[in-house]
Write a structure and sequence with these properties.
- This protein folds into two domains: 2-167 and 350-368, 3-Layer(aba) Sandwich (Rossmann fold); 178-347, Rossmann fold (3-Layer(aba) Sandwich), CATH 3.40.50.
- It is 44% helix and 14% strand.
- It has helices at residues 16-31, 56-76, 108-111, 119-135, 144-154, 178-188, 207-220, 238-241, 261-267, 282-289, 302-306, 318-330, 332-347, 351-368; strands spanning 2-6, 36-40, 81-84, 100-103, 138-141, 161-163, 194-198, 225-229, 250-254, 270-273, 294-297, 311-313.
- The strands form two sheets. It has a six-stranded parallel sheet, sandwiched between helices. The chain has a six-stranded parallel sheet with strand order 9-8-7-10-11-12, sandwiched between helices.
- Strand 1 (2-6), helix 1 and strand 2 (36-40) form a beta-alpha-beta unit.
- Helix 6 crosses helix 9 and helix 7 packs across helix 12.
- The longest helix has 21 residues, at 56-76.
- The radius of gyration is 21 Å and the shape is globular.
- The model has no long low-confidence stretch (mean pLDDT 93).
Length: 371
């Protein structure tokens, strides 16, 4: 089978979509040496940051490539099926010379549109996305929660939406090497005892509640700090996003390099993950794989993915969050139990299995088209 996959997500910093694309491509090639997996993307004059940060000129050039050059390139390479690993990676599917699959991880940009766009741009985004969702041959999504959300929003038949869970990379495991831990601690100026929070200033990551909960926890445990990692959302700095809040003991190291993440997780006393909306949510599983206990939001897909391997809390209740953290830090038995559950849970999510199930979907779609 000759499989085409959009390569644009691989050009940016590690995000859920870029990690997904990288792992899927590597495992498809490893499992099926008889297949050709070909990446398609226009040559970029940017990369490293977020797709949303590139210039309008670059976005326009990408749009023209996708609409006009891509169909010709797929035909020239005799591609049997084309897979876009993100929401807007496809032109209108009817323009393509082969069947197509879209991974729609979630519909955050529909459900929380005004956190990301002006009202006019939000309407434009939904207007552009909906026809693609309705026309594509098969949608892959990453949780039962996301499938239900997509079906309710789009009206697409449920049998045209397949759930294939993400995996956890094998590089996430407990880091015990003191030299490596010390190097990462020094690199990001990390304290010796800290709770890790992912998401920085992106609104749905709900960092404000994490900071409020930490302020309460610090009254009981003055020696522990809160480390909030991640890039500034839309160039909104933590000082701007959290102006007027008590930030005593809160550190913002910014973007953490991929290779440093296992050490960061391993050093943390706990991961605090209070996101209000996730299609899947990799950080809790990555932390679990590194032997770090997790306190997470009882919201959207997170209970489905984490199960009983995380302490689930109301993400809008800082008192409950602080109590859960204090309980976890106070009980060695509870901590050991959650670490054991977490390692077992993380091990059940495999990128190899993600690729295997995705390849089966390709076969089904091509077969429906008489391939």
């Amino acid at each position: 089978m000759r499989i085409g996959i959009e390569g644009l997500p691989l050009m940016f910093h590690r995000t859920g979509t870029s990690a997904y694309t990288h792992e899927l491509v590597q495992h498809l090639r490893r499992q099926n040496p008889g297949d050709s997996v070909v990446l398609f993307a226009r040559n970029q004059r940017m990369g490293g940051g977020s797709y949303h940060e590139i210039s309008y000129a670059e976005r326009a050039a990408n749009f023209i490539y996708k609409q006009y050059r891509l169909p010709r390139e797929l035909a020239d390479h005799h591609i049997d099926i084309y897979h876009s690993p993100r929401d807007m990676g496809l032109p209108r599917p009817r323009q393509l010379p082969c069947p197509s699959v879209m991974t729609l991880h979630d519909i955050i940009l529909v459900r929380l549109a005004l956190d990301y766009y002006s009202p006019a741009r939000a309407r434009m985004y939904e207007k552009r996305l909906l026809p693609r969702v309705r026309e594509v041959d098969q949608i892959i999504t990453i949780s039962r929660f996301s499938k239900q959300d997509i079906v309710e929003w789009s009206g697409v038949p449920a049998d045209r939406v397949s759930v294939v869970y993400d995996g956890v990379s094998e590089r996430f495991s407990p880091v015990t090497d003191d030299a490596r831990l010390s190097a990462v601690r020094l690199k990001y100026r990390l304290p010796h005892e800290f709770i890790l929070c992912m998401g920085s200033t992106e609104p749905r990551k709900n960092t404000r509640t994490a900071i409020e909960a930490y302020a309460r926890l610090r009254e009981l445990r003055p020696g522990i700090q809160l480390v909030v990692s991640g890039t500034d959302y839309c160039r909104l700095t933590p000082q701007q996003a959290f102006a007027g809040m008590d930030l005593d003991g809160v550190l913002f190291p910014g973007y953490i390099e991929d290779d440093d993440m296992p050490a960061l997780y391993s050093m943390a006393q706990a991961l605090l993950f209070l996101s209000l909306y996730e299609g899947f949510g990799l950080p809790p599983l990555e932390a679990m794989a590194c032997g770090t206990p997790v306190v997470a939001a009882d919201a959207t897909s997170i209970p489905e993915i984490s199960g009983d391997a995380a302490i689930l809390v109301n993400p809008r209740d800082p008192i409950q969050v602080a109590a859960a953290l204090d309980m976890l830090l106070s009980s060695a038995d509870l901590r050991e139990e959650m670490i054991a559950r977490g390692i077992e849970k993380a091990a059940s999510y495999s990128w190899s299995e993600t690729a295997r199930q995705t390849r089966e979907i390709y076969e089904q779609v091509v077969s429906r088209h008489g391939g």
